[in-house]
Amino acid sequence: MRRLPTRSTSPVRRRVVAAVAVSVLCAGGVVAAPASATASRPAPAESSPALDEGLALTPPMGFNNWNSTHCSADFDESMVKGIADLFVDKGLKDAGYQYVNLDDCWALSARDANGKLVPDPARFPNGIKAVADYVHSKGLKLGIYTSAGTKTCSNVGFPGALGHEYSDARQFADWGVDYLKYDNCNNQGVDAKQRYTTMRDALRATGRPIVYSICEWGENKPWEWAGDLGQLWRTTGDISDSWGSMLSLLKQNLPLAQYAGPGHWNDPDMLEVGNGGMTDTEYRTHFSMWSVMASPLLIGTDLRTASGTTYEILSNRDVIAVDQDPLGKQGTVVSSDGGRWVVSKEMEDGSRTVALFNETGSAQRVATTAEAVGLPSAPAYVARDLWQHKNASTAGTLAARVPAHGTVLLRVAADPKWASYPPAAELGLDEHVFVEPGASAKASGTFANLGRTPARDVAVSLSGPSGKGWKIEANGPTKAPVVPGGKSLRTRWTVSAPAGSATGSYDLTLRATYRSPQGAKVTSTVPVTAAVATAPPSGASALGDLPWLSTTNGYGPVERNTSNGESAAGDGNPLTVGGVVYAKGLGVHAASSVDFYADRSCEHVTAQVGVDDEKGTKGTVTFEVWADDRKAASTGMLTNSDAPQALSADVAGAQVVRLVVTDGGDGIDSDHGDWGDAQLTC
Question: Catalytic amino acids?
């Protein structure tokens, strides 16, 4: 469920964000139309192909301030000009970014005596036109924001455009605005299509080409009707800077591929890359999957303080080229078994961009074939890794050991010159490594030649964390003079953790070097992890008291023996479902995953589960228990009106037990799930 504008957990306001200078349709809360909404306005303009032609033929790329500043004092003329300067100085303009978009809070809270919008003189002392002129002088475009209601989404309540569409659109055009993000708050119950159609007509009446971004939150399925109104439409609620939020929006947007194309794009909301709530691996997945979905790429971090890694992710031209491909196809799901996703995007030149995406909390082998992703039969193919910027040949298998929450992005083509490239190699450990403090564990790895030509002088190494007392020894051959196409080199290792190691994941490095038939040296490096964990005690243990291997949570941290609460750690309440209070358990927020080490010695998980009472009538969730890659139990969708449900799962033989809470399939809003009295019996 979408996070409503009134939700108390938003930093300043609750709303769905859409792009500004391009026309975006956003629908929000339902409200009744003021009398002026349909009175005293010009007749609707005829559709003008001359105005529509050329708008957003590829997904809009640019910047929007909301995710990084909200309504804070940092959002002002100086910031906007600074972002425009950085677009030029840091090469973002040359990479394809062009819109610098203002979000909410740019205006005063009241119109002037003539009903006109007034820019806030403290934030924009020279007005919006002066800012637009500056942005235009850099060869860029300016976007702006308002709502299809009586007020915008900010708690302050800035003027919305409902009933003022033609006047506001005229002001935007006179200021030189190029993109409008049109939100959905305070809409007085007026039909969404009617509200967004009126603004479309108002924008056209100005005679200025303005990209129209419809920020309707997906409530009224705008993908079915907004293609005749704007150039992009929100398909989801607001994104937040967390893995769970990003993943939920990704899953909502993926099924809508048929509705996307040049001039009409599905918009799963802005980018969070660089804002600090996710890892760099997760941000690369975020950027990769938004590009595969042909989504608008609107930077949501303050570029004035962005790290070099953030610029590296946002400036990856190989990945940007996927998003901006002129064919305009959104990627479609080929497979998604066990959280191992394959998504394929058809490209204008006949190639396919293939995302091998690992949703799970541990490294996984993700694999497909050239045939499965839609490529024609060929003797071999060339696959370019778009993050490593390397080309290799493959006989048809597309596979990688993908780290937790990671994505390997390949652009694959049937290329007659395939033999001039080194053979592709798949490198990884065959199983997850679990080791107790001061003890040793066995590990095995595989170097697989996926090409048709041989890999020569193959050498594989495994190393542990530098200077931390880890010891890794090979238990067999780690080199081979040649590994023919389609064959593998197996390696075996003993991994020893130092005594006193804390429970958690530790980074190891698996590396292979080899030579192509032409003699070119190839180095492949795969980050892998070893988990230091202690076997759970015999008998029944409260999961709220056991150490976990890893967690992800849709909002705030997973809480032990209290509810999720809000965003801060330790702010939960007693676990309460349907008035029943539980002293022990876990409080989470969808989308959530909590992994526990079971050492293949446990038998059952039991719990009383449901939506916590702290969110009133809100919240829809599904509880799942996984035993390694096997779903051992599931509740189906539960709402706040459901009584606690007993859940029992057979987890015999599992190395890892995973407790999962999803959003019930309707988006994330107040999805607070409780694992009451959760126990693991070993």
Answer: 183, 238
Q: At what angle do helices 127-137 and 77-89 cross, to 10 degrees?
A: 10
Place of tokens 């990884």: 428
Residue written as tokens 């809480």?
Answer: 559
- Cα 625 from chain centre: 24
Find out whether 581 and 651 touch, Cβ atoms under 8 Å: no
pTM of the entire predicted model: 0.88
* Identity of the residue numbered 676: G
Side-chain half-sphere exposure of 170, counting CA atoms within 13 A: 9
Predicted pLDDT at 552: 87
* Residue 30, pLDDT score: 30
Residue ranges for the chain with pLDDT beneath 70:
1-53, 666-667
Instruction: From residue 132, give the alpha-carbon distance in Å to each of 100, 144, 270, 340, 639.
Output: 9, 10, 21, 45, 47
Q: For residues 176 and 173, what is the distance between their CA atoms, to the nearest angstrom? A: 5
Cβ atoms of 42 and 65 closer than 8 Å:
no
- Residue 503's pLDDT is 87
Residue-wise DSSP of 73-130? TT-SHHHHHHHHHHHHHTTHHHHT--EEE--SS-B-SS--TTS---B-TTT-TTHHHH
pLDDT score, position 52: 53
| Tokens coding 40 | 């005293």
Helix 243-253 vs helix 280-292: crossing angle, to nearest 10:
10
The partner residues of 181 in beta bridges, in order of sequence, read 24, 213
